[in-house]
Amino acid sequence: MESKPKFTPDPNLKLMDQVRQVLRYHHYAITTERTYCKWILRFIHHFGSRRHPSDMGNAEIETFLSHLASANQVSAATQRQALNAIIFLYKQVLDIEINDKIAPLKAKRRPRLPVMMSTAVIRAVLKQMHGQHLLMAELLYGSGLRLMECVRLRVNSIDMDRRLIYVRFGKGGKDRGVPLPDTLSEKLKAQLDAVRRIHAADLDDLDLYTCVASLHTKNSSKVACLVKQTGVYLQNNSTPQSVGGSPYPFSSGGRFFPGSRCCSEGPDSPCGGWRT
Hints:
Elements: H1 15-25, H2 30-46, H3 58-70, H4 76-93, H5 119-127, H6 131-143, H7 147-151, E1 158-159, E2 164-167, E3 176-179, H8 185-206, H9 209-213, H10 220-230, E4 241-243, E5 246-248
Antiparallel strand pairs: 1-2, 2-3, 4-5
Helix pairs in contact: 1-2, 2-4, 3-4
């Protein structure tokens, strides 16, 4: 079996744009993209921003990582994160092999006690929250969702009948189901009604529904252009989904917690092109 050729970024792009291009090609999470870019920039700035990474090597990497451990007193996990970002830059973007014998000054592992909030404290915190943020916090605590799993929750991922929430592409790209607390049923239904109202307002403001209905016709390119001009994008040029018997196009991305504005950067943006 032939091995898949290695992806090569556009050489006409700036270095950091090449880094982002490779990260997105390999489907890295947006949080990983931001973290890697941050460490790569810190690595370059550490040497005065006068030298291109291709002109540096193991010695400079060791110097930078040792500086993090000695001067900045970073944790071992943070130092390892910086190393992973720099190795990614050299191996995946610049296509330069780095010697595995990198031996910087190691950051010390310091034992830390976990911070655990009592039930009384959690209740006190929840009492200070209101509206959508309160519902999100209750889902985090009651269902065991991670933060971004809650933020990216989709309408069709909530199964009221089985009392389950389906997490798609969670940590490690895995799917799983988590319990839906009975005490949140009414609040979830109210949030769904609010999302429907947002969707209806989007259709009224942008007259988008006719665009969606004809998206797979021979005029799809014109439709896509029209949608782009309005600043609202559809996931994978999809047709509307049906939620509760009502058509639910992706004007708000099918998100259960849609943002207050529409993304203007398009479907290739980190937010996916829908409400943020």
